[in-house]
Design a protein that fits this description.
Helix 2 packs parallel to helix 5. The protein has one domain. The protein is mainly alpha-helical.
């Protein structure tokens, strides 16, 4: 189930594999655990409570660790690792599941248009790679 959730967010099959490799790595699991230990409460719930003057009560326990800079913005595997692991605790937010979902939905990452745009972008990159790997020869008809 988790792999399917990762799959539709990524731009390519290779990016899906790279992202799964990161999230299954020992380094990520240790960083995630360290963040949840350092900040066990949802940071968005805490902020909402401060805005409303509520000291406690509506704050949920954090179950998700969110990258402030999305790792999907990376164009290479090395950059993806740097964004995921190299950001340290300061590049992460502890969130409850509802706040994490809200954050992603508000950012528009899951809209139909955003998904289609990422698919189109991935297709364009694939075409460029194909042309580099299999350049047309003189005998091929140019279309």
């Amino acid at each position: 189930m988790k792999k399917n959730r990762l799959a539709w967010r990524c731009n390519s099959i290779q990016q899906q594999r790279d992202k799964a490799e990161i999230y299954n790595s020992r380094e990520w699991k240790q960083l995630r655990e360290a963040k949840l230990t350092a900040q066990p409460l949802c940071e968005m719930c805490l902020e909402e409570g401060r805005k409303r003057g509520i000291k406690r009560g509506y704050v949920r326990s954090a179950t998700c660790v969110h990258h402030i800079v999305p790792i999907e913005t990376a164009t290479t595997k090395e950059e993806m690792w740097r964004l995921a692991i190299g950001c340290g605790l300061s590049g992460l937010m502890s969130l409850c599941r509802p706040c994490h979902n809200k954050l992603h939905n508000d950012a528009g990452y899951h809209t139909k248009e955003a998904v289609q745009e990422r698919k189109q972008s991935a297709f364009e990159r694939w075409k460029v790679r194909q042309q580099r790997q299999h350049p047309p020869t003189d005998g091929d008809a140019q279309t």
